[in-house]
Amino acid sequence: MKRFTNVKSGGVILTLLLLALVSGSVWGQVGTLPIKQSGGKSELPKGFSYEGLGSDYSAEPKLKFDDTGDYLVLHFDNTPQNLSYTIKWNGSGTFGVFIVEESADGTNYNELVNYTNSNNPGANKSKDEKLTLSSDTRYVRWIYNSKKTGNVGIGNIIVTEALQDDKVNIPILIPEDGTTFVDKLTVTVSCSTEGATIYYTKDGAEPTTGSDKFPTEGVTLTETTTLKAIAVKDGLDNSEVVTATYTKLEPYASLKALKESGIATEEGKPCVVELKDAVVTYADSRKAYIQDETAGLYVFGSNKLKAGTKLNGVVAAQLVLWNGLYELKVDGGEFDNVAVTNDVEIPVQEVTVAELNQNFAQYESMRVKVVDATVTSSFNDKNGEIEQNGEKIALRAADENITADVQATVDVTGYPGLYNSTKQLNVILQEDIAVKTAGKTQATLTFDSDTYSVNVGESLTVKATTNSSASVIYSSSDKTIATVDENTGEVQAGNKVGTVTITATVTENDEYTGATATCTVNVVDPSALPEAKALVAEKDGVYYAMLNTTDKSKLNASVATVLNGKVITDRSDLCGWYVDEENGTIQSISNNQYVAHGSGNTDLELQSNSFKWDCRGGMWQCEVSGSERAIGYNSSTDKFGTYLVSDDTYPKAVVMPITEGYHRNVTSGDYGTICLPYAVAAEDMAGAEFFCIAGKVMKDGEPQSIVLEQVTTLEAGVPYIFSATSDKLIAAYSGKAVAVAEEANGLIGSFEGQDVAEGMYLISAQNKVQLCGKGCKISGNRAYIDMNEVPEYSGEVGVNQRLISFEDATGISETMVEGGLADVYTLSGVEVRHQVDESEATQGLPQGIYIVNGKKVVVK
Question: Per CATH, which fold does 172-248 belong to?
Answer without folding.
Answer: Immunoglobulin-like (2.60.40)
